[in-house]
Amino acid sequence: MMKYKGYYGIVQYDDEAKIFHGEVINTRTVITFQGTNVDEIERAFRDSIDDYLDWCKERNKIPEKPFSGKFVLRLSPELHRQLNLKAKFIDSSLNSFIVHTLEKAVAS
Question: N or C terminus: which one in the chain shows less Cβ crowding within 10 Å?
């Protein structure tokens, strides 16, 4: 995985075309790039993100942030109730309890 200015890209190799092609994966905006070797694909990745940011600036548009820190979670009412009770039991807000639980999950 590649990272630049908070944007992440993945790369695949097309053995028929003999080319690497990639896509930025943490935006709704489609940002792609390609190259024939590692140096080219890395440069194309950075250039594509810089081009996107320049495009936004020229049009006075706010670039899409890779992550806002908010997401909608759908779960059953029963699980919602259980999570809320567990959070209250440990004297925590539901949000803090879920953040702490998710941090533990990705750390392991």
Answer: C
Q: Which residues contact 25 (CB under 8 A, 6 or more apart)?
A: 8, 9, 10
Q: Which helix (H) or strand (E) holds 4?
A: strand 2-4
Other Cβ atoms closer than 10 A to 33: 23
| Number of C-beta neighbours around residue 59 at 10 A | 7
pLDDT tens by residue, 55-97 = 999 999 999 877 777 788 999 999 999 999 999 999 999 999 9
Q: List, for residues 21-44, the tens digit of each pLDDT value.
A: 999 998 888 999 999 999 999 999
Sequence-ordered strand ranges (E) for 32-98: 32-35
Amino acid at 102: L
Model's pTM, two decimal places? 0.65
Q: Which strand ranges, in their side-by-side order, compose the sheet holding 7-14?
A: 2-4, 7-14, 19-24, 32-35
